[in-house]
Write a structure and sequence with these properties.
heterodimer; A: mainly alpha; MetI-like fold; 2 domains; B: alpha/beta; nine-stranded mixed β-sheet; two-stranded parallel ribbon; 11 strands
């Protein structure tokens, strides 16, 4: 018995507190690391499980994608046409990008290339603070500030429309786009700028001819992430867009977004009904679109790294 | 040093909070009450008055729409569902398939008022005119079609405010005004009774419908007639009770089967003179 003890002692000796902490932390970090993957797969499986019976059952594909008639609670003849909802989301996101792209790229170029010292630090902090404003607060701004403003300025009957939601969404997407675009600009090596300067280029020529082309992929990724943000935003769009089923014909038309429809109706449907499943089908659509957008953005960013 | 003190204070506060929660949960009965936005104000008033009368019973009231309440009853998550429309046969069948036996209680009556901007000169509508404005295929889209000129409404477009499609108000208005028809698409589907009144107040071109109890002095209530010959009736508590106002409806509560214990006592109290006085004070018509 006593002769065996010395053989096992060195093994035991290694398993001190530090060893356990090390192992424990390894497991903890591993769980943290794969949790994103597990969660995203879990969410996808859940959404698909709830939505699939509708897709394989009573869904009419042609109606879903080509009809604007979203009447899920009709007594006589419920119809599930999502075209107006998709067009609503697309039009609001499109206008939001028109607002956000010039603003955020301008801000990113200014912060990365022109501003120095304290101005630059202050601006960076302010842009990040802008990203922290809750979306319901943006919605309030759309509802109570922009609505009367649009009515008065353009003499239209209601101010809850594409213009309102687009501006609000553009301002919401701008900070994240600015931050990512600025990172992309900063990733361009200073040697490029120095070379251009040595050849007598002005600062604008450096930005336009050298820095922007060199950081193109990163900027595209920034815009795509902004689009993803716009697509997925719910509360602000629900409040500012008018929540009205309409095929948009102009920026003063009220529309309804896919996300807003899910938010407004899901809490009130009976689990397992066609309406409930149709809303999950809309969720699958959103999930796929944002997934493709984010994947594209990711691939584009990888594109720069490989070069 | 200061950090230490802060941590200690937080710990003590947390412990105190836990103790407080624990003791409360022990000796209080909780009644979950959810549903109609039309009823949510009066349900809240009932709950508050009842809490004073019976401190041992807490009634948790949530709104969200009749559909929400009925769905919650079917899913078995509430004791009482509030509804401003009757349960559909489909919903009753679904409830029964899940072992829930919905029992209906009429707790009051509500006039569904048609709201228009205070500058709108046309304050009398027949049901047919409303159907032409709101119904799918209805020809009226402009105030010019009705020969109405509203100051501040340059385009003369009728801006229709409606409710989200699971609202009891939405379902009742559709049934009473549009019959078997559907709503015309393109209305602003707002998410609460009060929102409709607020929106109409701020929009000169607007027309909207909402419970009478949400009326304010900043909007106009339209008189409604069954047909062109019939009398135009102003929505009031009295015209809702005597049936002369065409768009009045019962306000309902649903329980799972015959209620027992605290839920039964609560419903009995709501239907008593004391409970009915509260619903009348909130602008609805009492049952008796």
């Amino acid at each position: 018995m006593s002769s065996r003890l010395p053989r096992t002692l060195p093994d035991l000796d290694r398993r001190n507190l530090a060893w356990f902490v090390d192992k424990g932390m390894q497991v903890f970090m591993f769980v943290g690391g794969i949790s994103a993957i597990v969660l995203i797969i879990g969410i996808f499986v859940f959404i698909t499980k709830e939505g699939l019976p509708f897709i394989t059952g009573s869904m009419d594909f042609a109606e879903f994608f080509t009809s604007p008639n979203w009447r899920p609670t009709s007594e006589e003849n419920p119809t599930y046409g999502a075209l107006a909802l998709i067009a609503g989301t697309a039009s609001v996101t499109g206008l939001a990008m028109l607002v956000a792209v010039p603003f955020s790229l301008g801000a990113a170029i200014f912060i990365a290339e022109f501003a120095t010292g304290r101005t630059r630090e202050t601006l960076k902090i302010l842009v990040e603070m802008l990203a922290a404003i809750p979306s319901v607060v943006w919605g309030f701004i759309g509802l109570s500030l922009m609505n009367p403003l649009i009515i008065d300025t353009f003499d239209v009957p209601v101010g809850l429309n594409i213009l309102n939601a687009g501006i609000i969404l553009g301002l919401m997407a701008a900070p994240i786009m600015t931050t990512i675009a600025e990172d992309a600009l900063k990733a361009v090596p200073d040697t490029y700028r120095e070379a251009a300067e040595a050849m007598g280029a002005t600062r604008w020529q450096i930005v336009w001819r050298v820095v922007l082309p060199a950081s193109r992929n990163g900027l595209v990724a920034a815009v795509l992430l902004g689009v993803g943000r716009g697509f997925g935003e719910t509360m602000a769009v629900l409040m500012a867009s008018g929540h009205s089923i309409n095929m948009p014909g102009g920026i003063f038309d009220s529309v309804r977004a896919v996300t807003a429809t899910i938010a407004a109706e899901l809490g009130e449907t009976v689990q397992g009904s066609d309406h409930y499943r149709a809303l999950f089908t809309l969720g699958m659509l959103l999930f796929l679109v944002t997934f493709v957008i984010n994947l594209t953005a990711d691939l584009v960013v990888r594109g720069i790294r490989k070069k | 040093m200061t950090r230490n003190i802060v941590v200690k204070v937080l710990c003590v506060a947390l412990l105190g909070l836990l103790a407080a929660c624990g003791s409360k949960r022990g000796d209080r009965t909780l009644i979950q009450n959810k549903g109609s936005d039309t009823l949510v104000n009066v349900a809240q008033a009932w709950a508050e008055a009842y809490a004073k009368k019976k401190p041992g019973v807490a009634v948790a009231v949530t709104g969200g729409g009749s559909g929400t309440g009925i769905a919650a009853l079917i899913n078995g998550t509430v004791d009482i569902a509030n509804a401003s429309r009757k349960m559909k046969q489909k919903e009753i069948d679904l409830a029964k398939s899940k072992g829930i036996e919905p029992k209906e209680w009429v707790v009051g009556y509500d006039a569904l008022a048609v709201y228009i901007h205070k500058d709108n000169p046309k304050n009398q509508y027949t049901l047919k005119e409303l159907a032409d404005i709101y119904g799918d295929g209805g020809p009226t889209t402009s105030w010019n079609d009705l020969g109405v000129k509203i100051p501040g409404c340059g385009s003369a477009e009728i801006v229709r405010f409606s409710r989200q499609n699971n609202s009891g108000t939405y379902a009742y208005f559709r049934k009473t005004v549009l019959g078997k028809g559907d709503f015309k698409l393109g209305s602003m589907d707002l998410h609460g009774s009060k929102d409709v009144v607020d929106a109409v107040e701020k929009t000169p071109c607007a027309i909207g419908y909402s419970g009478l109890a949400y009326a304010t002095e900043h909007v106009q209530l339209a008189d409604v007639a069954r047909d062109a010959n019939g009398p135009y009736v102003t929505p009031t508590v009295n015209s809702a009770v005597d049936g002369s106002y065409p768009i009045a409806r019962p306000l309902l509560m649903y329980t799972n089967g015959e209620p027992t214990g605290a839920t039964k006592e609560y419903l009995d109290w709501i239907l008593s003179a004391e409970g009915q006085a509260i619903i009348k004070r909130k602008g609805y018509a009492p049952v008796k």
